[in-house]
User: What shape does this take?
Amino acid sequence: MRFQHLSAVVLLLAFILASGLQQASAQNQRQNAIGMEEIVLDNILARTSIRSYQDRPVEQDKIEKLLRAGMAAPSAVDKRPWHFIVVTDKQVLQGLAQANPNAGMAARAPLAIVVCGDKTKALTRVPDYWVQDVAAATENILIAAQGMGLGAVWTGTYPVTERVEKVAAVLNLPDHIVPFCTIVIGYPEKPQAPKDKWDENNISYNTYGGAKPAMDEPAPQFREFNVNEDFLLNPFNYFTQPGGLLVCAGDRTGSNAMTIGWGALGTLWGHKTNTVTVYVAQARYTREFMERCDYFTIMTFKDQNVLRYMGTKSGRDGDKAAALGLHVAYTENGTPYYEEAECVIECKKMYSGTFDPAKFKDEVPRDFYDGFAAGYHSFYIGKVVKAYKKD
Assistant: This one.
C-alpha cells in the first residue's frame, strides 16, 4: 500500500513539473516574440544609406548571408526572376562607378552586388512584375547588411536605358539579364544617424484622404514590471535606440528632462542591486535637478519629435514639457515622469561624480571635449526602485 501511495505522489509531482515546464516554455516563447519584434523593427528603422567605407573586405560568409536574404524575398507566383552579380574585383568596381553616375562610391568600396532581372524566369502573363520582385530582393539585402554591421546604398540602374547598357557592358550580361540596381556595400567608415521619415501626410484610411478612424479603446496604462524577469532588451543597445531616451529629475516644485544617448544598466554593491548610470554635461539645466534631488527617471518614447525637441532645447528657455503637450506625473516618491512615455524606470541616487580629464586613458577620445562648451560630464548611479511600462 505504501508503494501505491508513493507511486501516486511521484506521478503527481511529475505532472506538476511537466505543467510548470510547459507554462515556462510558453512564457519564454511570448517573451522571445516580443524581443524579436523590437529587434526587427529597430533594424529596419536604423537602416540608412552609407556611401563611404573602411579599407576592409567583406567576409565571404557575410556575402552569402546577404544573397540568402535577397533570395528569401517574395516574388509573383514564386518565379524568383532574379540573378545576383557579386563584384569584388577593383577594376570591375571602378567600371560600375563609371557606368552609373550614382554609383561613384563603388570605386572605393570592397563589394557591390548588382541585382538583375532574369526575363526568362518572369511571370508570363505579367512579365514586368520582375521589377517588383527584384526590388523586394534588394530591400532584403539592405536590411540584412544593416543587421550585420555593414553599410550599403541602393544605386538605381533600370529603367534608365543608358545606365542599363553601360552596366551590362561592364558585366558582359546576356540580353535576357537586365541590371536593375547596384548595391554598394562595405564596413562603414563612420556611423551615420538614420533619418526619421515618418510622415502622417502620406497615410490615408479606407479611401484616399480618409481620416484615421476614431479609436474607442482606452489609452494604454502603465503597469509595474520586474526588471529581473521582464526586461527583454539588450542593455548594450538600450541607450542607443533611435532618438535616445529621456532622463528627468526634480520634484513637485519643478523639474526638467533632456535626451540622453549614453548610459549603462547593471548591478553594483550587491548581487540584487540593479543600477542605472546616466551622464549629464555640467552645463545642462537638468544637471541642477540631478544634483539637488535624490531620485530620477529614465523614459523611452515612440515619438521621435519628443526626443529631438528635448535634446535641442534648454529648459532655461521655457517649459519643454508644456511646449510638447506632455503631462507630468509623479511616483510615490515624488519623482517626475511623463504620462506619454512608453517605459519609465525610477532610480534612487547611490553615487555621483564628474569626469576627471587627468584620469582619461588612451581609449577615451580626449578630443571629444575640445571646444565642448557644455563641460565634462557628470555621472549618476541610481538604484532601480520601480519600473513601469505600457502593454
Remarks:
- The first strand starts at residue 82 and ends at 87.
